[in-house]
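Shipment paperwork, digital attachment
Item: protein structure file
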Amino acid sequence: MPKVTAMMIVRNEANRYLERCLKALTNYVDELVILDDASTDATPEICLSFPMVKLYCRDTPLFLKDEAQLRHELWHYTVATNPEWILALDADEFLETRAVRELPYLLKQDFFPAISFRLFDCWGREDYYRVDGLWNPWLRGFSIYLVKYQPWLDAAWPLQKFHCGRLPLAYRHLPHLESDLRIKHLGWANPADIRAKYERAVSQDPTFKYMPREHYESILWPADKIKLEKWQD
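Attachment content:
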């Protein structure tokens, strides 16, 4: 099976989903390059408890100031490992369990240099995902998370400090295979996190350059207005 290198940015993830995420990745990833954005908790220690992890640590945080620069740093460390395929996931995202069986077939095919997946935002709990508005994974469609490394491609990111994407621009337009494997995103699963995430989002994008105002406001909608569907394994 081709070598799979995952890459991830983390900051203060010790009490969230990090350990679960890393355990899941051990089932189908050969190595994991992590850039710690100056965590002040036990995040680095958790990362180093997994032998497959190559950890790099910043002394000062950068994510909320210039995400594109941070992503570029992570890419630099990742390609230094001589990867074949690169998987870009966050510490609160999980490919569904059947990925262990199906990823080998996706990686061995020679027709597509990139694989795209749908992301499902679990909302207020881990077993229901959101389907109203721009949260709907069926309307939002596929995004590329897994690419074959091609060193001749340019590694530039867009010149924007937020919502800059996880992969270099050149990789986002590759022919890609749309996989029916789903990504389960738990970033909104804890109700206690939702308001803080809303406040961070609007502080980063006060003029609604990256997302419509209505989408940001929908983060704080009452439960009876939000549409959910049951996650089925």
